[in-house]
Amino acid sequence: MKSRKKSRSLMDVYLTWPMILSVIFVSADIVLWFVNVQAAMILLLFVFIYYAFAFWLYFSRQGKLLSAVEKYAIGSNAVQSQLFHEMPTPYCLVDRNGNVLYSNRRFKEIANGDRAAAGSLIQMFPNIHEDMLPKDDETIELHSEFQDRKYLISMVRTPVTTGEDGELSLLSPELEMVAVYLKDETEEANLRQALACEHIVIGLIYIDNYDEVLEQIEDVKRSLLMALIDRKINRYVSTVSGLTRKIDNDKYFFILKEEYLSKMLEDRFSILEEVKQVNIGNELAVTLSIGIGYGAETYAQNYEYARTSIDMALGRGGDQVVVKSNEKLTYFGGKAQTQEKSTRVKARVKAQAFQELLDGKDKVIIMGHANSDVDCLGASAGVYRMATTLNKRAYIVENTITATIIPLKERFKQSGDYPEDLFITGQQALQMVDGSTVLVVVDCNRPSIIDEPELLTKCKTIVVFDHHRQASETIQGAVLSYCEPYASSASEMITEMLQYIGDSIKVKGPEADAMYGGIVVDSQEFTNQTGVRTFEAAAYLRRCGADITRVRKIFRENLRDYQAKATAISGAEIYRNAYAFSIVDAKGLESPTVIAAQTANELLNIRGIKASIVLTLYNDIIYVSARSIDEMNVQVLMERLGGGGHRTIAGAQLREGTLTEAIASIKQSIDDMIKEGEA
Fold first, then answer.
1. Which residues of 359-368 are buried (b: 16+ CB within 10 A; e: fewer)?
2. 88-117, pLDDT tens digit by residue?
3. pTM higher than 0.70 for the full model?
4. Pairwise CA distance, residues 190 & 446, whole Å
5. d(Cα 357, Cα 130) in Å, to the nearest integer?
6. Looking at residues 12-40, what average pLDDT do you find?
7. CB burial readout 651-667, b (16+ within 10 A) else e
8. How far apart are CA 92 and CA 154, in angstroms?
9. Distance between CA atoms of 621 and 424, rounded to whole angstroms?
């Protein structure tokens, strides 16, 4: 055997050295002979004795020494094998298929008599697959469970070969084994879970319509109403062992342990509905917005999460809960119709802030979302009028021109009151940007769908005016942000702000038509999310010269679009007797996305329909338009697809899959919402 030959040659080296040294002594004796013969004779005698002893040692003791070394090696190997077998760490060797070739006593104890598990690592831990076994020298670690115990599994490849280094295996020379070590981390995981349950959750509760509700009841009943609301909030938080403190007339602060947060999540924050039941003569139901933060390293960071959450809840229209951790955002509620604020204080404050912001700036670049619609153009025209009134040069970015806005744009071009470069492309805008440029984003608060995303990174001063409910994706770093989901349209918001920009502002006919058209389209001709302020804005635009007849003519459809809409309506599918699905064929249509939205609006006129969903495939993108009246929050539905919008008007864009797959996905989302009580 090679190992024996290797041991013998090593022994020969050590036993030969005395004989080699005797040759040196003989040479020294010869030299001494010429110096002193008597001394040389004496040395020769000792050299002869030394040489005889070395010769005897080499030939008589080599076998016994080699036998002793081999016995020690055999005993050492047995001890090592026994140590591995008795090692307290569970250990085994598996082949490339996960079959156990060898396992120690501790590993067998874990298997607990389960032969199938003891013979296969994959059978023992189902989350381990063959392709997960290490193929090189790296160590792979993963977590798994077996028989209610949690384990950290470490795997490292151990190649078995027969080569020149003397290693030998009785198994296949090409076999690759994997050494597997198990670490029981059940107690550690339980301690981590217990520690996580002790973490503090911080929350904020705001009464959305505090002033509006109090105005509806008598003075003597106001304290009773607030007492009832306080009681419900305190009782709800106390049921999860939390602590509540009132920090303002309409604001509450609460804390609780993280282990109790799951109870709130399970009942989907029933406090939202409980507070609505408080009624002592108020016609308007009380609604709450709740922001919760948890999972951060510090209490201060959890509080910031809660602040962000409450801002998101308010920005999305209130009557909902936003839960934020360091990993994700979760939304609950949002069923109530957004209540319009009767006061214009916020519009005036934002208008004045915008006016102050433009001081010291030279250029204003106005941009909306991709595939601009009438509301986007109307809001852009209103911001253009504000900027020019303040003697600032303004431009409107339009990369894609849809058929619906062409007639309105022609009015600007034919008027003669506007510069030729009023409308520019995104690339032209990028070349104009400098330190004195203000970027104003209208009718959009999602960076992924704006017309020219690169402008967000190049412009240092960003302003956002939008009426859509905020989603988790928002434009970051805005110096001024005015997002009001109660407004029917962005044009309505800008119209209100116009009235607080200077005293001599004069809105021209094309601008008034565009803003009026934006309100008409987004409010579905004053039938959706329309309040007093919507009509006041429309009245102001009428006084500025908006022509209702002209706007109506602009919105007239051609025959092909009308036929496409009729075809889509006739082919509609009713799902669960309440949800209308249809597809618009984009072939031959100038603006299939607009036809899809109009079709969704028409389908709501069918009795019993809670929501309508219309899809169209245009430029390899599936556009989804969702509409409802008041029975379903289609914004939540579209957010599940990566979209967003309003409670009654929402949409999404799908860049993968087919129309059939998209419809199936939407139906599954509806089923999930029904199970969760959201639909």
1. eebebbbbbb
2. 888 888 887 888 888 888 888 888 777 777
3. no
4. 41
5. 62
6. 72
7. bbbbeeeeeeebbeebb
8. 11
9. 25
